[in-house]
TrEMBL record:
Organism domain of life: Eukaryota
Coiled-coil stretches: none
Alphabetized InterPro entries for the sequence: 6-blade_b-propeller_TolB-like, Serum_paraoxonase/arylesterase
SUPFAM superfamilies associated with the record: Calcium-dependent phosphotriesterase
Protein name: SMP-30/Gluconolactonase/LRE-like region domain-containing protein
């Protein structure tokens, strides 16, 4: 009897994690059903909205607010249509697209014309390719950190950004063995930040098979890294947590860091523990996780009420198709060359967005869910001015709402 019960408990010990694993996978896969076109719920929890700047900007993965000035900063990379390190596909043989661009949108006055309210940020002193995903601005030190995953390898570019003149002057290029697939950055000062590596196995270096295994099995092996920029411009960095697909990152308060786990449909809240004496990096301890009805991408914190803002992808199949089609659909000459067939394909290829906010008191509330504005990757909100912005990984322009 004892033998059987030992074997049984060994079996249970083996199966319990498997059951947890499978339940987690089913939760993610079930989105293909629940968020299919026609079945996904729609939300538009604001007074009015419009999709703006569709002719000026596209593929803006990240947006952040400088509320004191009524400015939204944007990192937009149309080059993602052919050089996509996040989704792991590359169109070989095509010349690199023009560099990613940074923009500033003055959202204070809705009656300003597009030309008056949207301005490019001039980049000075960077002489390499720039392919962006996430970026971060540390306001007191006017330091801008921009992820760069161009052909020269993964790095973070540091700039000094003057918001009066909208000129970003390149200070240095940061690289480090722990900088593998930088996705999002949150700055603690002008020389200290956390960043996420969304994968351990990158498609470019490790091949698509390992990349896909890590993505779809949601292996908890990718890292959250804490880094200091040293006097000599090098990086002192250490892994402070490992989880599946660390994507957006935001500081909720001095002791809590939120990190999206995209491939698990949740956002992890970590308690930041100080380092032991003599160790500069500290570590993160998982406190709790927030379940979402979509795969979370970037995170932001609303200044006025401290709410965590979460944007992401409700329906992966559509997102995949949509992202691969942009190379044709966003280029008039490619659509013309493809004729009627290409036009039809572009007309019927859509993708969904979902943006929500979370507070410990009220839990999750939905702001926008729908298909009119595709591929939401970031959401920010200025409560005082009653303005919110959703930006899309592969979309033209921005969704801007007012309350
Ligand atoms: C934004 O526009 C308003 C209204 O025209 C103007 O007063 C303000 O100076 C502008 N802000 C910036 C940072 O350019
Ligand atoms: C920080 O935020 C977390 C999550 O909202 C909360 O549980 C915690 O109490 C906050 N801590 C402080 C010091 O405000
Ligand atoms: C989570 O954070 C709260 C608030 O900071 C704290 O009281 C609680 O002990 C933490 N729980 C765990 C499991 O770390
Ligand atoms: C819409 O927003 C209001 C105010 O923030 C909130 O009370 C309500 O619960 C939200 N509705 C949904 C469906 O999340």
């Amino acid at each position: 009897m004892a033998g059987i019960s030992i074997r049984l408990s060994a079996l249970v010990a083996l199966l319990a994690p498997l059951a947890v694993f499978l339940a987690g996978r089913v939760r993610v896969l079930s989105l293909a059903y629940f968020n299919a076109p026609g079945r996904m719920p729609n939300y538009a929890n604001f007074t009015s909205s419009e999709i703006k700047f569709t002719e000026q900007i596209r593929s803006c993965e990240d947006v952040l607010l400088v509320e004191a000035r009524g400015l939204a900063l944007l990192a937009c990379d149309p080059g993602r249509e052919t050089w996509n390190t996040v989704m792991g596909f590359f169109v070989e043989g095509e010349a690199p697209h023009q560099n990613a661009e940074l923009w500033a949108y003055n959202y204070t006055n809705p009656s300003l014309s597009d030309a008056q309210s949207l301005s490019p940020i001039e980049i000075v002193g960077l002489h390499t390719e720039l392919r962006t995903v996430g970026f971060e601005f540390h306001e007191p030190s006017e330091t801008l950190f921009v992820t760069n995953h161009g052909r020269e390898g993964p790095r973070i570019e540091q700039f000094h950004l003057d918001l009066e003149t909208l000129v970003a002057t390149h200070t240095r290029t940061l690289s480090h063995p722990l900088l593998r697939a930088p996705n999002s950055i949150v700055a603690l000062s002008g020389s200290e930040f956390f960043f996420t590596n969304q994968h351990h196995f990158t498609a470019r270096e490790s091949g698509r098979l390992l990349w896909a295994l890590e993505t779809y099995v949601a292996l908890p092996i990718a890292s959250v890294v804490h880094a200091h920029v040293l006097e000599d411009g090098t990086l002192d960095a250490a892994v402070v947590a490992r989880q599946a697909y660390p994507n957006g990152i935001a500081l909720l308060n001095d002791s809590t860091l939120a990190v999206a786990a995209t491939s698990k449909r949740l956002v992890n809240l970590y308690t930041i523990l100080p380092g032991e004496p003599g160790r500069t990096h500290g570590r993160l301890q998982l406190n709790t996780s927030i379940w979402l009805p979509f795969l979370p991408d970037n995170l932001a914190v609303s200044k006025a009420d401290g709410a965590l803002l979460i944007a992401g992808h409700p329906h992966l199949l559509s997102l995949n198709k949509f992202s691969r089609s942009r190379r044709v659909c966003h280029r008039p000459e490619a659509v013309a060359a493809g004729g009627e067939k290409a036009r039809k394909m572009c007309d019927k290829t859509g993708a969904a967005s979902w943006a929500s906010e979370w507070t410990p008191e009220d839990g999750l509330k939905h702001i926008y869910a729908g298909w009119e504005y595709p591929t939401s990757s970031s959401v920010v909100r200025d409560r005082e001015k009653g303005v919110g912005i959703v930006s899309g990984l592969y979309s033209k322009g921005l969704l801007i709402w007012r309350d």
